[in-house]
């Protein structure tokens, strides 16, 4: 039996960082794999995980719960067949609802193959004081369906928001298997040994019908001779625009930082080649974080916004950050 866990959470709560931390704790002799789904189509999270050495299968361009299960099941089946892992971590998009994924993992097709384990939900407690989150059905149902509730980024949280987190956790029915606070996505691997409660699936589904951007599976790629490609999508009340760029295009790091500072969007994430090396960039709520990464064959960047973005202006200003076009 392959043990499988969902790592959920809304945009920018630190799911990918948490998965990277868990993968550093894999017991010797075990093989773990990650099935990652992103709202956008460029596949930034998958590339970040792959750069760390993780075994990854991507389902980009939508939300796992919204595509009748087919792309999800195709990705899951290919991961199982090709990698034969002991454990699979599934990272749905932050805008995705986990219910249908959880139901699929327990259906007759996987009953003798998969062992559903504890599902973790990361939240940023600062969001609990903002109605745009607490009135979002997907945000609340991600919390409701989790076995383990994790308050991440607690070093940046006011006391009032930490108290809201405690109240939320204490009011959970059925009770959570564990409730923890952490920073930088650090999780103890023992949390995954806690039991999953299938009774959570009987709780009310608040989200109704979903919309997604497309039903294709597999990572995107540049055509031969193509210098860049732009991808656009929408669904779940949000919009995405992303770019895949030839690896010999180099961004001026300082100009790129300034470009991020001027963004007015929900989320931006990228792996980019710069004048100072290769970096992972993570922009959320006006704060940009950077992390060096391995050499990249291609650069990629994804933006998610709550309103239709000006694709051309974003692209023009982004390309003004290029130091060279190779």
Main attributes of the structure:
single chain, alpha/beta, Hypothetical Protein Yjia, Chain: A,domain 2, eight-stranded parallel beta sheet, six-stranded antiparallel beta sheet, 9 helices, 29% strand, globular
Short synopsis of the structure:
The protein is α/β, with parallel strands linked by helices.
Could you walk me through the main structural features you see in this protein, from its secondary elements to its overall organization?
The protein is α/β, with parallel strands linked by helices. It folds into two domains: 2-202, Rossmann fold; 228-324, Hypothetical Protein Yjia, Chain: A,domain 2, CATH 3.30.1220.10. Helices cover 25% and strands 29% of the residues. It has nine helices and 16 strands. The strands form three sheets. Strands 1, 2, 3, 4, 5, 6, 7 and 8 form an eight-stranded parallel β-sheet that branches. Strands 9-10-15-12-13-14 form a six-stranded antiparallel β-sheet, sandwiched between helices. A two-stranded antiparallel ribbon has the order 11-16. A hairpin with a 2-residue loop joins strand 9 (228-235) and strand 10 (238-246). The termini are far apart.
What is Rg? 19 Å
Distance between the termini: 49 Å
Main beta-sheet annotation: 8 strands, parallel
User: How many structural domains does the protein architecture include?
Assistant: 2
* CATH class term of the largest domain: Alpha Beta
Q: What is the level-2 CATH architecture name of the largest domain?
A: 3-Layer(aba) Sandwich
| SS-derived structural category | alpha/beta
Globally, the shape reads globular
What name is given to the CATH topology of the largest domain? Rossmann fold
Low-pLDDT segments: 63-68, 209-218
